[in-house]
Design goal:
The complex is a heterodimer of chains A (190) and B (179). Chain A has eight helices and no strands. With 190 residues, chain A is mostly helical. Helix content of chain B is 77%, strand content 0%. Chain B contains seven helices and no strands. The chains are: A mainly alpha (190), B mainly alpha (179). At the A-B interface, α2, α4, α5, α6 and α7 of A face α1, α2, α3, α4 and α5 of B.
Chain lengths: 190, 179
């Protein structure tokens, strides 16, 4: 077993019960405005001490490169590590349950009131700002990549941007070509 | 044409989002261009403005941003559609994460693990950049809107301000009728 919490009997790090897991991820989900990651880190590392910062970063980097929503993957990886399959299930349901209910209610309201002029004006302002937030996120992700000097990585990023964003090619098609190329380049660069 | 009867729309939602789930490298944002392509351009479930609205709602709602699929699902096929879209988008990738999470630590020293991890970084960067472009094009219809996008981006990059404040300001600008 490579699981440190199992390998070291009587280790100091507390292990969450299933109920604690569930309630913690409910907490993360309903406070996670604009991305749930900072809240997950605060709950797991700072408040509960279930993981060290390094363990958290390690687990999160895995969740990040797996396909699918990062925080959702993280809830599964984290829940699985501390509670097996039931742990993964309760963490996932805790994270997704409340937002799904809330957003479905909003969807009902939108279906009735989406055409109201004032609401649609407010939403159009918010969506312009939301686009800006992604721009900032791209700049933060990209800065280290482009600063690192000459490498093929920026070219891969630019190719992906043009294929999916500008040419609007289907995502699976682009990835089937681009992902292996990028991994091969990273392998050669080692 | 939209088929509102029977299981047609549910199966379509399930199919699209299951595939998308497994190709969303870089998270929910990386999948936004493909969601837009399917929902607006291929299936004509909604127009540009509705898509931008749903993106905005997902941003200001609590929880992970992937929740936009719940809204799309609801728009297409009601509560059942919301449930099907959400499960399809989250289920496959979570199953994958579950099994990879169990074995990943065994390959800590393997060279290919580092290469896979490093190789995915620029791929997801490109996809998220595409997402910024697609959302901006759907949301910004005049110069002031484009300016708002740029101003928000600069502010979010250089400060650690809570995004809700930026949304509040942008919502007010929109309400005032400048967009």
């Amino acid at each position: 077993m490579s699981d440190p919490a199992i390998a070291v009997p009587g280790a100091k790090a507390p292990r969450p019960s299933l109920t604690e897991l569930f309630l913690s991820f409910v907490g993360v989900s309903i406070s996670g405005f604009g991305g749930a990651l900072p809240w997950a880190r605060r709950m797991i590392v700072d408040r509960r001490g279930w993981m060290t910062t390094d363990e958290f970063n390690e687990a999160f980097s895995l969740a990040q490169f797996l396909p699918g929503p990062n925080v959702v993957n993280f809830s599964v990886v984290f829940g699985q590590r501390f509670g097996g399959a039931p742990g993964a299930a309760v963490a996932l349901i805790g994270l997704m349950g409340p937002p799904v209910v809330i957003v479905t209610l909003i969807g009902v309201l939108y279906a009735y009131f989406g055409d109201i002029e004032a609401l649609s004006r407010i939403l159009s302002g918010i969506s312009s700002a939301a686009a800006g937030l992604i721009v900032a996120m791209v700049a933060k992700m990209g800065a280290p990549l482009f600063r690192r000097g000459v490498s093929a990585a920026p070219l891969v990023a630019i190719a992906g941007f043009i294929a999916v964003g500008v040419l609007r090619w289907p995502l699976p098609l682009v990835l089937i070509v681009l992902a292996p190329v990028s991994v091969a380049l990273a392998w050669v660069r080692r | 044409m939209r088929d509102d009867s029977g299981f047609g729309p549910l199966l379509t939602l399930a199919g699209y989002f299951t595939v998308l789930s497994l190709f969303a490298i870089g998270g929910a944002n990386a999948a936004v261009p493909e969601m837009h392509r399917i929902a607006v351009e291929v299936m004509h479930w909604m127009n540009d403005r509705q898509f931008a609205d749903m993106y905005a709602i997902a941003q200001v709602s609590p929880g992970p941003n992937v929740i936009i699929v719940t809204l799309i699902g609801y728009h297409v096929a009601g509560v059942a559609g919301a449930a099907v879209a959400t499960v399809a988008m989250v289920g496959p990738t979570c199953t994958f994460a579950f099994f990879v999470g169990r074995t990943w630590d065994h390959f800590k020293e393997a060279g290919w693990r580092a290469a896979v991890q490093a190789g995915m970084v620029p791929v997801s960067l490109g996809l998220v950049a595409a997402s910024a472009f697609v959302v901006a094009r759907a949301a910004d219809h005049n110069e002031i809107a484009a300016l708002l996008t740029v101003a928000t981006g600069v502010t979010a990059y250089f400060t650690r301000i809570n995004p809700l404040w930026l949304f509040a300001v942008a919502g007010a600008v929109g309400l005032a009728g400048y967009l």
